[in-house]
Automatic annotation (TrEMBL):
Segments passing through the bilayer: 6-31, 77-97, 109-130
Signal peptide (UniProt feature, chain positions): none
Species name: Pseudidiomarina insulisalsae
Keyword set, alphabetical order: Membrane, Transferase, Transmembrane, Transmembrane helix
Full protein name: Glutathione S-transferase
GO molecular function: transferase activity
Record has Transmembrane as a keyword: yes
Location of this chain's protein in the cell: Membrane
Pfam annotation, one family: MAPEG
GO cellular component: membrane
InterPro entries named among the record's database cross-references: MAPEG-like_dom_sf, Membr-assoc_MAPEG
PANTHER family: GLUTATHIONE S-TRANSFERASE-RELATED (PTHR35814:SF1), PTHR35814
Length: 134
């Protein structure tokens, strides 16, 4: 029996494409600056690797929670809202760090959006588990 995860799959695919773009940006800078490991003296490469790493630190867990929510029967509206917010937040985070390594509106939107998704998903998971009497 196949389990349908159409909504999670949409956002997993979109986020995978974004991860690919972030990876290519790092590779391009490594070639340009001739840096095999680490970031050398390149500030551009340092920023690009942090953008990439931050994505890798947050997105897998948030996607896993989205899949679990879909499996538990969460509404399509909630799933699309969280998936869409996560995708937009990760784009904003990357753009914001490219604009400035300090505070920027885009980085703030990225961080807040990511944290909102994280907290809503965590709350849903806990509420669902408590609702089941676990």
């Amino acid at each position: 029996m196949a389990v349908e995860l159409q909504i999670s799959m949409i956002y997993a695919g979109l986020l995978a494409l974004l991860y690919f773009a972030l990876s290519v940006a790092v590779i391009r800078l490594r070639w340009r600056d001739r840096v095999g490991i680490g970031t050398g003296q390149s500030k551009d490469l340092e920023v690009a690797t942090r953008i990439h790493a931050n994505f890798a630190e947050y997105v897998p867990l948030l996607l896993l929670l989205l899949v679990l929510m879909e499996l538990s029967g969460a509404s399509a509206t909630l799933l699309h809202g969280l998936g869409g917010l996560l995708f937009i937040a990760r784009i904003c985070h990357a753009l914001g760090l490219r604009m400035s390594i300090g505070p920027s509106w885009a980085r703030t939107v990225g961080v807040l959006g990511t944290f909102i998704v994280l907290l809503v998903e965590a709350g849903y998971m806990l509420g669902y588990a408590v609702g089941l009497g676990l």
